[in-house]
Amino acid sequence: MSRQFLAEGLELSGGDYGIAAVVAVVALIALVIGYFLLKEVLAAGQGTAKMQDIAKAVQEGAAAYLKRQRNTLSIFGVVVFLLLFALPADDWSERIGRSVFFLIGAVFSFTIGYLGMWLATRANLRVAAASRESGGREKAMRIAFRTGGAVGMGTVGLGLFGAAVVVLAYAGQAPKVLEGFGFGAALIAMFMRVGGGIFTKAADVGADLVGKVEQNIPEDDPRNAATIADNVGDNVGDCAGMAADLFESYAVTLVAALILGSSAFGASGLIFPLIVPAIGVITAVIGVYITRARSNESGLVTINRSFYISAVISAVLCAIAAFVFLPGSFAAFGEQYANDGNPAVIATVAVIIGIVLAGLILKLTGYYTGTEHGPVKNVGKTSETGAATVILSGISVGFESAVYTALVIGAAVFGAYLLGGAIALFAVALAGTGLLTTVGVIVAMDTFGPVSDNAQGIAEMSGDVDEAAAQTLTELDAVGNTTKAITKGIAIATAVLAATALFGSYQDSITKALSTIGTTADGVKSFIDTIVSPNTLVGVMIGAAVVFMFSGLAVNAVSRAAGAVVYEVRRQFREIAGIMEGTTRPEYGRVVDIVTRDSLRELATPGLLAVFAPIAVGFGLGTGALAGYLAGAIATGTLMAIFLANSGGAWDNAKKLVEDGNHGGKGSEAHAATVIGDTVGDPFKDTAGPAINPLIKVMNLVSVLIAPAIVQFSVGPDASFGVRLAISLVALVIIVVAVVISKRRSTVISDTPAETQEPAKTA
Amino acid sequence: MSRQFLAEGLELSGGDYGIAAVVAVVALIALVIGYFLLKEVLAAGQGTAKMQDIAKAVQEGAAAYLKRQRNTLSIFGVVVFLLLFALPADDWSERIGRSVFFLIGAVFSFTIGYLGMWLATRANLRVAAASRESGGREKAMRIAFRTGGAVGMGTVGLGLFGAAVVVLAYAGQAPKVLEGFGFGAALIAMFMRVGGGIFTKAADVGADLVGKVEQNIPEDDPRNAATIADNVGDNVGDCAGMAADLFESYAVTLVAALILGSSAFGASGLIFPLIVPAIGVITAVIGVYITRARSNESGLVTINRSFYISAVISAVLCAIAAFVFLPGSFAAFGEQYANDGNPAVIATVAVIIGIVLAGLILKLTGYYTGTEHGPVKNVGKTSETGAATVILSGISVGFESAVYTALVIGAAVFGAYLLGGAIALFAVALAGTGLLTTVGVIVAMDTFGPVSDNAQGIAEMSGDVDEAAAQTLTELDAVGNTTKAITKGIAIATAVLAATALFGSYQDSITKALSTIGTTADGVKSFIDTIVSPNTLVGVMIGAAVVFMFSGLAVNAVSRAAGAVVYEVRRQFREIAGIMEGTTRPEYGRVVDIVTRDSLRELATPGLLAVFAPIAVGFGLGTGALAGYLAGAIATGTLMAIFLANSGGAWDNAKKLVEDGNHGGKGSEAHAATVIGDTVGDPFKDTAGPAINPLIKVMNLVSVLIAPAIVQFSVGPDASFGVRLAISLVALVIIVVAVVISKRRSTVISDTPAETQEPAKTA
Question: How would you classify this enzyme at the top EC level (chains A, B) (predicted)?
Answer without folding.
Answer: translocase
